[in-house]
Design brief:
Length: 345
């Protein structure tokens, strides 16, 4: 990754986060989707004990959360924060997850696989995320034996995860590439080299707010190191293209860019009713304005927190009531006005 080609400052304006997920299953147990009742609870207990046993730091840092013990709103909130999957949130019988206090590491138990170790870090730090995942992976493997085949690698309930069991992904904000119609081409090229371009919540979801996940699709016949190298090289090329188009847009159409950014800001500051899709679109323009230094009194980190604060689960939890759609749109606008106007006083 050449320093002449890779501008870390511009990359930080485009990369939201990096995520690593390791899928693992245990010997002598049926796959989780086949046998949820008989061994599910036993697996939950053994995985949690393997992580915290004999280590006071981990015992204090990690909490075991059973899906059946939390409300539907809380389950939705964890999904919105990318800490658990929709599939796990629906497993109220044996589903559980072990979560660290910083909410950067989530070990999902009895989802599609017995265990899915997930680490999320800011910026383009896939190696750091993988290193954190390996620590948890080794702790579990000390006490339990993984289902592993000499030829095929780690076995999984889904054939697409056989091999390394590794899913690496990077969340990118690509407003200009999206607006000029390049995303379709990126998806086609990515597919040819074993990568996928998906929406904000992964497979089968749309790209709200011009947020896209780039991830590997191949886990068999390729090492973890090769997987990360291929993904990083592709992500860097996408970053370079988005960055170049941003510079060109600002140079050639500055007035139009400023108009779009400040119109978005004006609506966010004053709207009384706003849907999730409209808010995400406007927030995308706000993020672009911050990245281009058109807006300097709001940070990208604050905008990312705002994105989290306008989701359905957050609104239900924050206002402590089940809101119908129109009520959510009103409360969402209230949240946005409060946060955006507070920062600009």
């Amino acid at each position: 990754m050449s320093s002449e080609l890779y501008d870390e400052k511009k990359a930080a304006d485009i990369v939201v986060s990096s995520r690593i997920r390791l899928a693992r299953n245990f010997e002598n147990y049926n796959f989780a989707h086949v046998d949820r009742k008989t061994s599910g609870e036993e697996i939950v207990e053994k995985v949690y004990l393997a992580i915290v046993k004999g280590n006071r730091k981990y015992e204090e840092e990690f909490n075991l959360i059973r899906i059946e013990s939390i409300s539907e709103v809380d389950r939705l909130r964890y999904v919105e924060k990318h800490l658990i999957s929709i599939m796990l949130s629906n497993n109220t019988k044996t589903g559980a997850f072990v979560l660290n206090t910083e909410e950067t590491i989530s070990i999902m138990i009895n989802e599609e696989d017995h265990v899915r170790i997930q680490c999320i870090v800011p910026d383009l730090q896939l190696d750091k995320a993988l290193a954190s995942a390996y620590i948890i992976d080794d702790l579990i493997e000390k006490d339990m034996t993984y289902e592993f085949h000499e030829k095929f690698g780690y076995l999984s309930s889904c054939p697409t995860n056989i091999g390394t069991g590794l899913r690496a992904s990077v969340m990118l904000h690509l407003p200009v590439l999206s607006n000029v119609g390049y995303i379709g081409g990126i998806k086609r090229v990515a597919g040819q080299i074993g990568l996928a371009v998906r929406g904000i919540y992964g497979e089968g979801t749309e790209a709200k707010g011009n947020l896209f996940q780039i991830s590997n699709q191949i886990t068999l016949g390729i090492s973890e190191e090769e997987t990360l190298k291929n993904l990083k090289n592709t992500v860097v090329q996408i970053i370079q293209k988005e960055s170049a188009l941003r510079d060109k847009l600002l140079l050639e159409k500055k007035d139009e860019v400023e108009d779009n950014v400040f119109r978005a800001l004006g609506i966010l500051k004053n709207a009384r009713i706003i849907t999730t899709n409209e808010a995400m679109k406007l927030i995308s323009s706000l993020k672009l304005g911050i990245a281009l230094n058109l807006i300097q009194d709001i940070s990208l980190e604050e905008v990312d927190l705002l994105i989290s604060s306008i989701q359905v689960g957050y609104l239900h939890k924050h206002f402590k009531e089940n809101l119908v759609e129109k009520e959510r749109d009103i409360k969402r606008a209230e949240i946005i006005r409060g946060q955006v106007n507070r920062r600009r006083k």
